[in-house]
Design a protein that fits this description.
The protein contains 18 helices and 16 strands. The chain is of the alpha/beta class and about 525 residues long. Strands 1-2-3-4-5-6-7-8 form an eight-stranded parallel barrel, surrounded by nine helices. It has a three-stranded antiparallel β-sheet with strand order 11-12-13. Helix 9 links the parallel strand 7 and strand 8. Helix 5 packs parallel to helix 7, helix 6 packs across helix 8 and helix 8 runs parallel beside helix 9.
Length: about 525
């Protein structure tokens, strides 16, 4: 079974995505986590482009990587210059890595129109740059930029460029679909053409402009590529890079190729979410393998089949990639959804009991009003326990008032006062926040924390508002989702009202009650 090398470029190509920015410390944290996971190559940045990347390579020299090779990225020398005097080549050497990746042009159109140099000079640039770096005892990966575009339009020249790189000593030739517009059959033709032309390990580096980066990477491996380049969660310029969190399990679980030990593959979901957190970038719920909804089941017929055999609607075991099955409850649900959700929450239910029917009926009524419980497990658990008579009330809200709201000020603040009855005492608290929800939460916690100290350590991590019926204009109902966190535990609640503050207050109260109930 051949080993497929995984080459991660999240720290370089990934950061070129819109809205993506990593500090030096962020990059170091991610590099260490990639090494722990078992990534083979970590492309740390382009030392010739900015001081931060040079600082990154300086810091990584102080670290001990157990598995990964840290890679500095750059380009071939400039046209009509001496390779030893080229600033970019000098920066690559200054980075101090044992492996470097350099890109050069394979497409004659790009050489003439962008580099504005001769095809012969471009070949010299490739050969001399690779040869010089090899003379410094470095492992050199040559990225053949626009290879597939070039191979379609002028295959002889595209092949010439990678022959020059290989002749100069390049250890691996990575074929790049730089525009991200190639189709799988075009990737297959290009990889086969390259393998016929040179005897060298082949890598694949594709972008996702045609929504085919994963498929194209897999196709390249099917036709002989042994190195796959990409980013965690598919981050990258324009539409992103090939998504390694999809490619890795496909290679290992579907194609039975050797990529990582099974125990490491089980960390994939955690890795995916860790990277998203550090990058401050969202993961789409429906992202395959590692998304929250990747193994979520909502339709009653589907859930009923899942009860009999999970293979009916799950193409792999979620645990293989560290994810888990989720059963969603909505107006589309049958009793099977409620039963499975109850089991997930460790609540015993009888499928034929009146409680089960009443819970389902309540869900349908509330979702008709605009509620959604599939993304608000905590609110649904409270609903179930109320219907089952297992709900304990920890406090009673007597009043909540928003005051002193100033709009248009440079530093707007809002005051909120709450009156709460708790353990037979009526307590009042007023707090200032940077918005009404913040002020309400601070006031609510101020009252309750002396009675329930666990609330001191919880904090709000996400707040989302959705318009339920946009045709109603400013009178439309809004749905508010709030997510809280306590150490490693997180939970979400929902509120619905024509008044956004009221909807937020419902979700806040639910979130606090849920934590107290669980504690």
């Amino acid at each position: 079974m051949k080993k497929i090398q995984i080459y991660d470029t999240t720290l370089r190509d990934g950061t070129q995505g819109e809205g993506m920015s990593l500090s030096l410390n962020d990059k170091l944290l991610l590099a260490k986590r990639f090494d722990q996971f078992g990534i083979d190559y970590i492309e740390g940045g382009w030392p010739g482009s900015n001081p931060k990347d040079l600082a990154f390579f300086k810091e990584t020299r102080k670290l001990k990587f157990k598995h990964a090779k840290v890679v500095a990225f750059g380009s071939t020398r400039r046209a009509n210059s001496k390779v030893q005097n080229d600033d970019n080549i000098k920066a690559l050497l200054e980075a101090g890595t044992k492996t470097v990746t350099i890109f050069g042009k394979s497409w004659d159109f790009h050489v003439k129109k962008v580099f504005k140099t001769s095809l012969k000079e471009n070949l010299n640039m490739v050969y001399e740059s690779v040869h010089y770096l090899k003379s410094k005892k470095l492992e050199v990966i040559y990225d053949a930029e626009h290879f597939f575009d070039g191979f379609r339009e002028n295959p002889d020249y595209a092949v010439q460029t990678i022959r020059e790189a290989r002749k100069a000593g390049a250890d691996t030739i990575a074929l790049c679909d730089t525009n991200g517009g190639s189709l799988p059959h075009q990737i297959a033709i290009g990889v086969k053409g390259a393998r016929k032309a040179i005897r060298a390990p082949i890598g694949i580096h594709v972008h996702n402009d045609g929504e085919l980066a994963v498929a194209n990477s897999i196709t390249a491996v099917e036709h002989g590529a042994i190195q796959v380049q990409g980013t965690i969660n598919g981050y990258g310029e324009r539409c992103g890079n090939a998504n390694l969190t999809s490619i890795i399990p496909v290679l290992q679980l579907k194609m039975k190729l050797r990529v990582f030990p099974d125990r490491k593959l089980k960390e994939l979901t955690e890795l995916s979410h860790y990277v998203a957190e550090i990058c401050n970038m969202p993961i789409e719920n429906n992202q395959p393998f590692t998304g929250q909804s990747a193994f979520a089941h909502k339709g009653g017929v589907h859930v009923n089949a899942m009860l009999k055999n999970a293979k009916t609607y799950e193409h792999i075991s979620p645990s293989a990639v560290g994810n888990s099955t989720r059963f969603l409850v909505s107006e589309l649900s049958g009793k099977s959804n409620v039963m499975l959700k109850a089991k997930e929450l460790n609540i015993d239910l009888d499928q034929n009991a009146s409680h089960t029917r009443s819970i389902l009926q309540k869900v349908r009524e509330l979702e008709n009003q605009g509620y959604q419980f599939e993304a608000a497990d905590a609110s649904f658990e409270l609903l179930m326990k109320k219907e089952l008579g297992r709900y304990k009330k920890f406090f009673e809200v007597r009043n909540a008032v928003i005051s002193n709201e100033i709009i248009g000020d440079k530093n707007p603040t809002v005051g909120a006062t709450v009156k709460i009855e708790v353990k037979g005492k009526e307590e009042v608290a007023t707090e200032i926040g940077n918005g009404p929800v913040d002020a309400l939460y601070k006031a609510l916690r101020k009252v309750l924390v002396s009675f329930y100290p666990v609330l001191e350590k919880i904090h709000l991590t996400d707040y989302k508002v959705r318009v339920v019926d946009s045709q109603a204009g400013t009178a439309a109902k809004v749905r508010v989702f709030i997510q809280f966190q306590h150490e490693t535990e997180s939970w979400s609640t929902v509120g619905v009202s024509e008044n956004i503050i009221e909807a937020s207050w419902q979700a806040l109260v639910d979130a606090v009650e849920y934590k107290l109930l669980k504690s």
